[in-house]
Amino acid sequence: MLAFLARRLLIAVPTIFFVSIIIFGLQQLLPGDPALALAGEDRDPNVIAYFHKKYHLDKPFPVRYLYWIDDAAHGDLGQSLRNQMPVGALVLQKLPVTLELGAVAFLIALLIGIPSGILSAVKAGTGLDYAANLFALWGLSTPNFWLGIMLILLVSVDLGWLPASGFVPPTENLAENLRTIIMPAFVLGNAVAAVIMRHTRSAMLQVLNSDYVRTARAKGLSERTVVLHHSLRNALIPVITLGALEFGQLLSGAVLTEQVFTIPGFGKLIVDAVFNRDYAVVQGVVLVTATIYILLNICADFAYFLVNPRLRS
To answer: Which residues, other chains included, contact 111 with Cβ-Cβ below 8 Å and sequence gap of 6+?
Structure first.
């Protein structure tokens, strides 16, 4: 198992390298000169030349990339052109917020998607199956921003149960943190729950019709044991792959949700950076997000060994 994971980590290194080339290359295609934005309204040629030299903007593309990737390999993602803060400090400040939002949203998606998928497969063709599929269709069809606005109007404005926006760190007040995070997490996890439900249902239907499940039933095992101990464990293998990918999607797809609920996370950071042409922040955020996405796939490979003993050989 350790050798398998070591190979996966070795593959991840060149993958991150090629991703960094794409990130840096696409960034250079954006219109506009960040030095002009930093120079202010006067746009003094001497000031523009100073910023070009300071941030290596006067160098050709390969040289600028080598400067950037060398600094990134040493933990230096550059400096924000707008507020003159290290990008690494901004990432460490905003990433925990989005990670918490994504983790709670993913937990909600699992608590809704897996049980409903199991129930839909076990009760295939019944009213419960149709209700679960209707929920999945609703979750996939509902835009996050619309659902967020509707929940704000209903839960916050009309009922006054939860705050409409803002974020309180868990280190300050855990109860208030949960109050501010639960509604945006539900909005973000709603579509993921629908996807997980559909995949769990499909995988369970295949497993429930397999020979070893029929043998387990013939041996007189209870339906609960057959479903949870013999069927679910094998059906979870494709769901684990999906879960790792969907968690990465949650982190990258939190932009609209964070904007609607005014949560100061990764999504809001990159939106502000794009509008301000803060290229160093955009590059740093996208590189960190891509790295997390690759590491999540490695975690999914590791989870295979925990779920299915046959893969350990």
So the answer is: none
Residue 307 has a pLDDT of 66
Buried/exposed 46-70: b ≥16 CB within 10 Å, e otherwise:
eebeebeeebeeeeeeeebbeebee
Q: What structural domains and CATH numbers belong to the chain?
A: 16-73 (no CATH), 96-266 (1.10.3720.10)
Label residue 3 by pLDDT band (50, 70, 90).
confident
pTM: 0.78
Q: Where are the beta strands (DSSP E) in 84-156?
A: none
Q: How many CB atoms lie within 10 A of CB 31?
A: 5
| Selection from 222, 311, 268 nearest residue 90 by Cα | 268
Distance of CA 312 to the CA centre of its chain: 28
Distance between CA atoms of 232 and 298, rounded to whole angstroms?
22
The whole-angstrom separation of Cα 102 and Cα 248 is 9
**Interatomic CA distance for residues 85 and 88, integer angstroms:** 9
- Cα separation, 76 vs 136, whole angstroms: 43
Give the tens place of pLDDT for each residue, 259-313: 888 888 877 788 878 777 777 888 888 888 888 888 887 777 777 767 666 665 5
